[in-house]
Specification:
Blueprint lengths: L1 E2 L6 E2 L4 H6 L7 H5 L23 H8 L9 E7 L2 H11 L11 H11 L5 E4 L4 H7 L3 H6 L10 E3 L10 H6 L4 E3 L9 E9 L3 H12 L4 E9 L1
Parallel strand pairs: 3-8, 4-7, 7-8
Antiparallel strand pairs: 1-2, 5-6
Family: Belongs to the ComF/GntX family.
InterPro entries: ComF/GntX_DNA_util-trans, PRTase-like, PRTase_dom
Protein name: ComF family protein
Length: about 230
């Protein structure tokens, strides 16, 4: 009998047959019901679910921006942002429940295999030193480890106020919060960035801007949640 990584209640095994033939569950049925997968028709750019032809309103606006239109990024996310996911994300990021990341492994791998077949390099969105000290780990790096043990750090995060405290316009208009690490050579590489949540797309675009300017051929992103 195992414990749910979210609520820590015991997960009953139906029979010895399920123990042998089926991979052990690490999240209970009650908690799994709170997680809403992104399925069906999505925006071809940001991966948001919705009733639009190809790109959502946000991505059409990004495409019309005089500067950001040249930094187009394909994002795919696994879960919708709802109250259940908000609780789990807080537990994971802000309460230091490091082991919780294992609950997302199967879905992260499935979406990666389905949507990103030609990737040269996997990296992750960094935390500032201050935020890393507060949490003890970088949640984006932890999620990247679900896909590969060879995720490469490419960027450094400047010290600044939390993105979660900013509104949409403040996020979009902020200066680039990242610095490219020295001696990085990205010529013609397709880079996949891992992060926990995609909200406006500003964070991913700022990172992509630096990587594309350094010579990357393409930058895509895989995020756990689409807000």
């Amino acid at each position: 009998m195992s414990q749910c990584l979210v609520c820590h209640e015991s997960i009953a095994v139906v029979s010895w047959v399920s123990t042998i033939l089926i991979k052990q569950e690490n999240i209970c049925y009650r908690c799994k019901r709170e997680l809403h997968l992104i399925e069906g028709h999505v925006c071809e750019d940001c991966g948001r679910m919705g009733n639009f032809e190809s790109r959502c309103t946000d991505c059409l606006r990004w495409g019309e921006h005089p500067y950001w239109s040249k930094y187009r990024v394909k994002n795919r996310s696994i879960y919708q942002y709802n109250e259940g996911m908000k609780m789990i994300l807080n537990q994971f990021k802000f309460r230091g429940d490091y082991e919780l990341y294992k609950a997302f492994e199967a879905e992260m791998r499935k979406v990666f295999i389905r949507d990103f077949t030609k990737i040269d390099l996997i990296s992750f969105i960094p935390l500032s030193d201050e935020r890393l000290y507060e949490r003890g780990f970088n949640q984006a790096e932890v999620l990247a480890q679900l896909i590969t043990s060879n995720a490469v750090p490419l960027l450094v995060k400047k010290e600044e106020s939390k993105q979660s405290k900013k509104n949409r316009q403040e996020r979009i208009s902020t200066e680039n919060p990242f610095i490219l690490l020295p001696h990085i050579h990205l010529q013609d590489n397709h880079i996949l960035l891992i992060d926990d949540i995609y909200t406006t797309g500003t964070t991913i675009r700022h990172a992509a801007q630096l990587l594309l300017q350094e010579g990357a051929k393409q930058v895509s992103s895989l995020t756990l949640i689409r807000s």
